[in-house]
Amino acid sequence: MERNRALELVKVQLTDKRYAHTLGVMETAVMLAKRYGADVEKAELAAIFHDYAKFRSKEEMKQILIDEQEDVRLLGFHHELWHAPAGAVLVRKEAGVNDEEVLSAIRWHTTGRPGMTLLEKIVYLADYIEPGRRFPGVDDVRTIAEQNLNDAVLAAVKNSILFLMGKKQPVFPVTMDTYNDFIQNGDDG
Ligand SMILES: Nc1ncnc2c1ncn2[C@@H]1O[C@H](COP(=O)(O)OP(=O)(O)O)[C@@H](O)[C@H]1O
Ligand SMILES: [Fe+2]
After folding, report:
1. pLDDT per residue as tens digits for the range 57-99
2. What is the CATH number of the domain that holds 79?
3. What is the number of the ligand closest to the CA of 17?
4. Reported ipTM exceeds the 0.90 cut
5. For residue 51, pLDDT beyond 60
6. Which residue intervals of 37-111 are DSSP H helices?
7. Mean pLDDT value across residues 118-147
């Protein structure tokens, strides 16, 4: 799908602020794809659509997760986690995107997963470091992202886990599994 068409489809789904974030993720994902040899067009498309379902109702997202037999553990965690897998489903159904690599990068952009693909890492990291993001540690991750993709994704995963723990919030186990995967498998992860 052409970039402007994708942006048009996404813009109406989002608030202005979230759309601005999306543009930041798009630019960052394209930059990272060029740097690390990923498919630039797929990275751009996945980034544009990554938060497509962000403002859907809890009820709609929950029903999608049940219908599509997504990981049932998600239902026991914060609904913020639901927009990523629900988004992958809706982007296929409503926007007609059928590229599994693109859909998978949307699906895993919030939690990460063990054995992340290059495209999944790029979208996950772009979401974390896009220029509009301001949280403790993000500049360190930006610096690492200039050198080593796996190290940068690991740093982002670690920061996210520590951030949630700092607020005494539950951590979805797949993110812990992602952390362990990077630690145990290093550059193969
Ligand atoms: N493993 C996790 N367990 C629980 N909550 C998480 C986990 N990972 C991310 N979150 C929370 O989910 C929310 C959405 O994350 P994300 O999709 O990365 O950002 P965005 O707000 O840009 O959509 C964030 O508030 C984050 O704190
Ligand atoms: Fe998101």
Report:
1. 999 999 999 999 999 999 999 999 999 999 999 999 999 999 9
2. 1.10.3210.10
3. 1
4. yes
5. yes
6. 40-49, 58-67, 83-95, 100-107
7. 96
Give the total number of structural domains in the chain.
Answer: 1
At 18 the pLDDT is 98
Tokens 């949630």, residue located: 164
Q: Put residue 115 in one of left, alpha, beta given phi > 0 → left and psi -120 to 50 → alpha.
A: left
CA distance 73 to 165: 19
Cα–Cα distance for residue pair 110/162, rounded to 1 Å: 15
Q: Which helix (H) or strand (E) holds 141?
A: helix 138-145
In-domain check, residue 166 = no
Q: Is the pTM value of this prediction over 0.90?
A: yes
* Ligand showing the shortest atom-to-Cα distance for residue 164: 1
Q: Which amino acid is at 168?
A: K
Residue whose Cα lies nearest atom 22 of ligand 1: it is 127
**Residue 60 CA to ligand 2 centre (angstroms):** 16
To test the pocket of ligand 1, the residue of 130, 160, 177, 179 to mutate (highest count of ligand atoms within 8 Å of its CB) is 160
Alpha-carbon distance of 93 to 97, in angstroms, equals 8
Range of the domain at 120: 3-134
